[in-house]
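User: Can you recover a sequence for this backbone? Please restate the input before giving your answer.

Assistant: Of course. Working from this structure:
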């Protein structure tokens, strides 16, 4: 089984692009796990954007499937100001553009404003919960994560409430600390909460993903638990919009995530 750290080790420059090699144990249906592709798009842009400019906003559009094997990333810095850098990246798989990403990196500024996003209050802790078992039919990439559900109805149970809270951490990852790349991929590691509202198994595919990063501490122990609190905002004409709050191991909201998902059923 290929770890994320091993994929990072395969990250190689190729003229004006970068390439990774991904095994099929990272597949999500017929495409490579979208969180992994997005995280490596950011990693490619990071080759030209210094760490002292934290990632503030990240927008991803998934255009076509990324096949297992080689995926190529072509980053570009669009504008670099005194405090803000705007960058973009395209991913290519099988000779086709498969994803586009835009990122905004911004150095800290002095400001009179300080408003913190409070996480949901949950009393149940991950050590009191059982792991979700990886079963046949589940996306292959889920074997790389421990998931423990703290709140929410089972998938495909025709639930009336879509709210869910899931603790997540890496499984069999040789790195001792999370990196920005680890953290971004993990932020997409749970299924859409819309699937709990369905009455039978139905495929779903993310069309776009937007992240607003609020806390930039990513270097936690690889065995520490993150939490994703998600709910459906709207579902119309087979398209679902859902929002997640990503709570880091320190108990702070690290990011607000929003996805547009097409549900076939």
């Amino acid at each position: 089984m290929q770890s994320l750290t091993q994929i990072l080790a395969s990250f190689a420059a190729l003229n004006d692009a970068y390439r990774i090699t991904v095994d099929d144990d990272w597949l999500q249906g017929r495409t490579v796990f979208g969180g992994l592709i997005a995280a490596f798009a950011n990693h490619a842009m990071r080759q030209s954007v210094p760490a002292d400019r934290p990632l503030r906003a990240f927008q991803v559009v998934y255009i076509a499937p990324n096949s297992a094997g080689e995926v190529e990333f072509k980053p570009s810095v669009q504008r670099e100001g005194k405090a803000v850098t705007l960058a973009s990246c395209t991913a290519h798989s099988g000779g086709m553009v498969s994803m586009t990403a835009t990122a905004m990196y911004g150095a800290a500024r002095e400001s009179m404003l300080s408003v913190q996003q409070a996480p949901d209050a949950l009393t149940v802790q991950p050590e009191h919960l059982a792991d979700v078992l990886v079963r046949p039919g589940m996306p292959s990439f889920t074997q790389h994560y421990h998931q423990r559900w703290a709140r929410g109805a089972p998938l495909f149970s025709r639930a009336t409430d879509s709210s869910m809270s899931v603790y997540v951490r890496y499984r069999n990852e040789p790195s001792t600390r999370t990196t920005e790349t680890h953290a971004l991929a993990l932020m997409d590691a749970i299924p859409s909460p819309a699937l709990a509202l369905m009455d039978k198994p139905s495929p779903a595919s993310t069309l776009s993903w937007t992240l607003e990063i609020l806390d930039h501490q990513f270097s936690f122990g690889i065995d520490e638990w993150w939490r994703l609190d998600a709910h459906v905002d709207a579902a119309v004409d087979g398209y679902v919009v859902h929002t997640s709050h990503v709570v880091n191991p320190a108990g702070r909201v690290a990011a607000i995530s929003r996805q547009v998902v097409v549900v076939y059923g």
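That completes the design. The chain is about 10% helix and 40% strand.
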